[in-house]
Amino acid sequence: MADASIEFKGSSFTLSVLHLKTSKLADIRTDLANKVAQAPDFFYLVPIVVSIEQLDSSVDYQAIKTLIEEFNFTFVGFTGAIAKEQRTLIRELGFSFVNTAKPQTLDKTVSAEKPEVVKTETLADIPERSLFSDKIHRGQIRSGQQVYAKDQNLVVIGSVSAGAEVIADGNIHVYGSLRGRAIAGAKGHHHAQIYCQNLEAELVSINGNYWLSESMEQHWGSPVYIHLTDSELTSSKLI
Amino acid sequence: MARIIVVTSGKGGVGKTTSSAAIGLGLALKGQKVVLIDFDIGLRNLDLIMGCERRVVYDFVNVINGEATLNQALIKDKRVSSLSILPASQTRDKDALNKENVGKVLEELGKTYDYIVCDSPAGIEAGAMMALYYADEAIVTTNPEVSSVRDSDRILGMLASRSRRAELGLEPIKEHLLLTRYSPKRVDDGEMLSVEDVVDILSIPLLGVIPESQAVLKASNAGEPVILDTESDAGKAYQDVVDRLLGETVDFRFLHAKKKGILSRMFGG
């Protein structure tokens, strides 16, 4: 393979953003010195993005970068530029311009100007979804048995028989056939989902919304995941 | 160490006692020392199927209560000398057994016998739990219909959670699926679950498939376990089961409906 030595992949990182409220370099220097003095080790070589969102167009970008690097930050680029000309200028000066995944302002004219913004999961959604650890059950869950993953996701390596019941406060994964009852998001958790390799369930429920077998005709006997969209259960094929 | 095998099902009337008798006798015919225990206290049947009902003097409950010794209660089979039967009591109920004393009896029997076959009562109450508690292996007897499969599934759950092996965290009970009253023609007609369906739902290894057969009823009435009827399909299928229990690899038979030839179609067959 010609390109076996390298590979491009998209990834997300958490970066610190320094929001500037003034373009007066002397003021920034004073405040930054105070801040860094509180925890010099913490800030040492930290990659930093500078937001100029709150500044007007007369910004000395080169001076800001120099100032930031004086305090031993690793300068990554600018963010928060509103006008297109401003962004062009930043790039012409040789600095990178970084877009946030979510627009910081909801001003319509601004969002219209930023078509490159891709809607992804907002940061607020992520901790809620991945809050739970996994409870792993190996082997089949038989008729009459009940397994509850309290404050956890439930992973079943095996099938869930008809007449058995699996309950989780988080998600439910069944690596086998789901023939019994599955109740995810039991304590009220809208994002909980149910995954299974073969849907033949008696009942599935997420956050109190439930389906009986007759509602599952569309994907009966298929590998699917079930989730809530606007308080309606939806099933989608896994493969 | 004797192998303690429980023949169980959850549902009643699926062929537990018929299977216990056939398998017990079959193992004995292969030279093994076998004792058959009837755990169905109050509904004594095994002695009838074995044809020794007129020779019952003492029973399992008498032994448990210390009213008789094991040797007094055990009935030696007249056909095969290495086979004995410990009959149930017809006049008591299932609460007459307790774990501790049953354990003692099994331990005592284990000194003499190679196989202890426990014929379980139906249901999931105390009697059935007692029969499976000390088991090393379980033959889960199932008919190819949904309610029987569901009940077998329930019993499999009990085997995995309520047995001595489960309580002590030992190696789990070895589970075998025995499909009885199987009719390939009715499977083809869509009236019955197929072997594949049942194996898929229960996900345990298949020990045998016994075809639906008139020979079973005839054998029960005569007190001659059906395995002695070597001409019948059911008898042959039980023989295969015994061979598999003894570790042999035997192909499955009687899984498909017999195709009628042109002559038998013309003249009826």
Automatic annotation (TrEMBL), chain A:
Pfam families for this protein: MinC_C (PF03775), MinC_N (PF05209)
All copies of domain Septum formation inhibitor MinC N-terminal, residue ranges: 6-73
SUPFAM superfamilies: Cell-division inhibitor MinC, C-terminal domain (SSF63848)
GO BP term (any one): cell morphogenesis
UniProt keyword list: Cell cycle, Cell division, Septation
Sequence ranges assigned to domain Septum formation inhibitor MinC C-terminal in this UniProt record: 137-233
UniProt-listed PANTHER family: SEPTUM SITE-DETERMINING PROTEIN MINC
Subunit: Interacts with MinD and FtsZ.
Family: Belongs to the MinC family.
The protein's role, per its UniProt record: Cell division inhibitor that blocks the formation of polar Z ring septums. Rapidly oscillates between the poles of the cell to destabilize FtsZ filaments that have formed before they mature into polar Z rings. Prevents FtsZ polymerization.
The name this protein goes by in its record: Probable septum site-determining protein MinC
The species this protein was found in: Colwellia hornerae
Annotated gene: minC
Automatic annotation (TrEMBL), chain B:
GO cellular component: cytoplasmic side of plasma membrane; cytosol
Keyword Cell cycle in record: yes
Alphabetical list of Pfam families matching this protein: AAA_31
CDD domains listed in its UniProt record: MinD
Biological process annotations from GO: division septum assembly; negative regulation of cell division
Annotated ATP binding sites: 11-18
AAA domain boundaries: 3-151
Keyword presence, Nucleus: no
Signal peptide start-end: none
Keywords: ATP-binding, Cell cycle, Cell division, Nucleotide-binding, Septation
Entry's Gene Ontology molecular function annotations: ATP binding; ATP hydrolysis activity
Family: Belongs to the ParA family. MinD subfamily.
Function comment: ATPase required for the correct placement of the division site. Cell division inhibitors MinC and MinD act in concert to form an inhibitor capable of blocking formation of the polar Z ring septums. Rapidly oscillates between the poles of the cell to destabilize FtsZ filaments that have formed before they mature into polar Z rings.
Subunit architecture: Interacts with MinC and FtsZ.
UniProt-recorded name of the protein: Septum site-determining protein MinD
